[in-house]
């Protein structure tokens, strides 16, 4: 597909996106340390099931632009702009959205603010405060310091170890992976994700404002804290449900995930 720069968010930020398939659009919003390429496998699976998967670079990532200062409402406006653009492009009556991890926080914010989305699916939104694991402001401040000093590699490692809580061997494995360079390029956006999350408690006002049907998914191999966060989010949404799927830590294979997403959006 062709990368598109024809759309801009409400603050003028250029947004790059690609669309796979010709069915009703599903806008896929990625999580921390990813650009739109991470969602391409799921987009292709959805396209094969009669939908169209739309991947886009969140602001500050990949081929999209950025505008300071950062604010969650600006990310919500970005998603709304992409949804409206693909609605017109596809001549679609409905547009859906899937949010991965912190991308789910963007989807929730957009839906609460009235973005033209018919249904949403969230995969493990990290409201770990629902399970008693709150985001530590001291650690967030240290992450912010590393980013401001240009210590991109150390910021990514710190985020993985101290914010996510990955063991040292997992962080070292990530350092040695081919994707490490790409992650360090967008290390500055980690501050966006921590801002979106706040103290990691459930945002009652935002959740209450989401009136459309919502499905919250989790992997049965994720940590108990992430699984509880997903369950609690599903229960807190006015029209929400929660479902656990077989998978690995913080992930379900696209070929297994896509049919569940398709069935919810088209059911």
From TrEMBL:
<dbReference type="InterPro" id="IPR029058">
    <property type="entry name" value="AB_hydrolase_fold"/>
</dbReference>
<dbReference type="InterPro" id="IPR022742">
    <property type="entry name" value="Hydrolase_4"/>
</dbReference>
<dbReference type="Pfam" id="PF12146">
    <property type="entry name" value="Hydrolase_4"/>
</dbReference>
<dbReference type="InterPro" id="IPR050471">
    <property type="entry name" value="AB_hydrolase"/>
</dbReference>
<keyword id="KW-0378">Hydrolase</keyword>
<protein>
    <submittedName>
        <fullName>Alpha/beta hydrolase</fullName>
    </submittedName>
</protein>
<feature type="domain" description="Serine aminopeptidase S33">
    <location>
        <begin position="35"/>
        <end position="253"/>
    </location>
</feature>
<dbReference type="GO" id="GO:0016787">
    <property type="term" value="F:hydrolase activity"/>
</dbReference>
């Amino acid at each position: 597909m062709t990368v598109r720069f024809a759309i801009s968010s409400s603050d003028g930020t250029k947004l790059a996106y690609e669309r796979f398939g010709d069915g009703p659009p599903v806008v896929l919003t990625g999580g921390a340390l990813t650009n739109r390429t991470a969602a391409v496998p799921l987009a292709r699976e959805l396209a094969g099931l009669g939908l169209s998967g739309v991947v886009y670079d969140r602001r500050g990532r990949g081929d999209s632009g950025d505008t300071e200062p950062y604010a969650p409402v600006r990310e919500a406006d970005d998603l709304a702009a992409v949804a409206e653009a693909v609605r017109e492009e596809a001549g679609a009556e409905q547009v859906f959205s899937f949010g991965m991890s912190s991308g789910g926080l963007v989807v929730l914010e957009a839906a609460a603010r009235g973005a033209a989305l018919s249904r949403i699916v969230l995969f493990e939104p990290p409201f770990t405060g629902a399970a008693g694991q709150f985001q530590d402001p001291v650690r967030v401040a240290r992450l912010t310091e590393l980013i401001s000093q240009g210590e991109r590699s150390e910021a990514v490692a710190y985020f993985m170890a101290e914010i996510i809580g990955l063991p040292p061997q997992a962080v070292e494995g990530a350092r040695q992976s081919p994707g490490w360079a790409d992650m360090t390029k967008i290390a500055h956006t980690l501050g966006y994700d921590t801002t979106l999350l706040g103290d990691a408690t459930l945002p009652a006002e935002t959740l209450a404002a989401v009136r459309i049907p919502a499905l919250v998914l989790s992997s049965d191999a994720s940590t108990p804290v992430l699984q509880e966060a997903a369950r609690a989010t599903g229960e807190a949404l006015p029209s929400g449900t929660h479902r656990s799927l077989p998978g690995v830590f913080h992930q379900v294979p696209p070929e297994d995930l896509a049919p569940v997403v398709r069935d919810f959006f088209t059911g």
